[in-house]
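Sample log: Hemerythrin domain-containing protein.
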Amino acid sequence: MREADLLVRLTGEHRRTEALFDLMADFPPGDPRRRDLLDDILLVLARHAEAEEGFLYPAVRAYLDDGDRLADAKLAEHAVLKRRLADLAVRTDGDQAFDDLTGQLRTFLAAHTADEENELFPRLAAACPPDRLDEIGRKARAAEADADRDRG
């Protein structure tokens, strides 16, 4: 896969999120750096969800025979994820719910990313022309840059 490829980009974001969780685990409960790292994770996940919903899942629908079913299942997972993110966004580090919810989020994301990387991404890579994945990846990057400008 090539760097512009949407699947390469999304896989890189998976690794970045895992690395942020690993860093977070290095600090004791109540350390303000944990909250800062969680805020970074929440931002990465928000952008990542936008890319998947706006670009990956439409490609899944277009190129895979069972794409509608797969995309709908992933969108349902995103709905669960967004509820968890909203709950975590209002928590403070040091309360037990913060640690519990962070652990649940990490477990949920590990399953989500493993399914994507081991099943969905290879199937899409086999069905979608590489140039098209590059084009979709470029569009996703441009959309993210536009959203960043709008966020200020």
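Observation: The chain has one domain: 6-146.
Observation: DSSP finds five helices and no strands in the chain.
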